[in-house]
Recover the amino acids of this structure.
């Protein structure tokens, strides 16, 4: 995957120079995230005037599920989150709701518990939540495991989170027991589409195990898609067989976007819900996940066969500056594949010149 020797050398040199300088000043190289965002925001999916040919508004889905990501809880957010949960229960009737990281806005146990109470009180549909890179501390004490799987309506859903990270960076990797478990879950014994939900992204490859994950997913014929967050814009990518949908940040000022997935026999349609004119409404965005084979679902579609690895807190045992050069090389390949290399190098150079941003203490 990430093979482009000449380019790698150039970017590694840029990375070493950039992070060498940051490390010498003892400052976290936060501007890298800004650089990723600036590149990827240019690729946001847009509203379209009419549904694409493949989307049949009259076709009833077998079932639906919803995804909210990057809630980034803050004092003014609860009313909008509660409205979104009401909309999901009353209009979407999903089999479950997935919440994919960077949730609580603060790592204190009380804050994690505040979010849990809010979800328990205001959402009737089953809810499955994983941690992200921000406010991961104490997640497991309140929400439990972030490594689990289940089947619903003939599809296997696998949820996971990084085991090692630098707190608040999302650049880390998985432990060996998580890899062993994931590899097994990616290969059902019978033909069954598999969807992976996590916070960080395989494409754009923003954590150090992204290349390894991409190779494993592409080599697992049942895997159809990844559903993620972390970057904040509303984007999707497909460079191989697997579709990667990165959902937008819910806590974004004004739109409070989230995704609803309509599952059909041979494909899944992703739709976007946004806050407009004082209420949530479905907007004219259409994304398609092709399933590797038709799903075999019968009767009621509900979550079945839930299993998990034991809860374990993230180990914050990495230093971002040791890992980010690798990620910058990965990202340069992404930028090259999307025709954004020139802009990527330009943004990186500008980021190097900018003083690091004052960042919020994630604890
Ligand atoms: Fe994140």
């Amino acid at each position: 995957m990430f093979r482009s020797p000449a380019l790698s050398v150039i970017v590694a040199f840029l990375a070493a120079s950039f992070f060498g300088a940051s490390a010498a000043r003892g400052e976290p190289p936060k501007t890298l995230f800004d650089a990723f965002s600036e590149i990827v925001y240019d690729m946001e999916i847009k509203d379209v005037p009419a549904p694409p040919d493949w989307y049949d508004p009259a076709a009833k889905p077998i079932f639906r599920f919803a995804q909210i990501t990057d809630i980034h809880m803050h004092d003014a957010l609860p009313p909008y989150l509660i409205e979104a949960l009401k909309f999901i229960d009353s209009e979407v009737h999903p089999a479950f709701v997935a919440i994919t990281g960077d949730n609580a806005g603060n790592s204190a146990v009380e804050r994690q518990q505040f979010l849990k109470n809010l979800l328990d009180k205001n959402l009737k549909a089953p809810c499955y939540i994983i941690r992200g890179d921000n406010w991961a501390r104490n997640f497991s004490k309140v929400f439990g495991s972030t490594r689990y799987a289940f089947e619903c309506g003939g599809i296997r859903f696998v949820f996971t989170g990084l085991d090692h990270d630098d707190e608040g960076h999302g650049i880390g990797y998985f432990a060996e027991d998580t890899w062993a478990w994931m590899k097994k879950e990616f290969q059902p014994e019978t033909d069954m589409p598999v969807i992976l939900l996590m916070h960080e992204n395989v494409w754009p490859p923003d954590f150090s195990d992204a290349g390894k994950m991409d190779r494993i997913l592409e080599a697992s014929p049942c895997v159809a898609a990844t559903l993620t967050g972390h970057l904040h814009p509303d984007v999707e990518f497909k460079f191989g067989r697997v579709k990667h949908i990165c959902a937008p940040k819910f806590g974004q000022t004004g739109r409070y976007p989230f995704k609803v997935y309509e599952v059909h026999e041979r494909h899944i349609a992703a739709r976007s819900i946004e806050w407009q004119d004082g209420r949530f409404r479905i907007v004219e965005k259409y994304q398609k996940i092709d399933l590797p084979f038709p799903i075999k679902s019968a009767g009621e579609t509900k979550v079945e066969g839930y299993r998990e690895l034991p809860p374990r807190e993230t180990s914050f045992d990495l230093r971002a500056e040791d890992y980010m050069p690798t990620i910058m090389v990965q990202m340069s390949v992404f930028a090259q594949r999307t025709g954004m290399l020139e802009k990527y190098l330009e943004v990186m150079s500008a980021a190097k010149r900018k003083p690091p941003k004052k960042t919020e203490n994630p604890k």
Notes: The mean pLDDT is 88. The radius of gyration is 20 Å. The first strand starts at residue 63 and ends at 68. Residues 102, 132-134, 170, 199, 230 surround fe (ii) ion (CB under 6 Å).
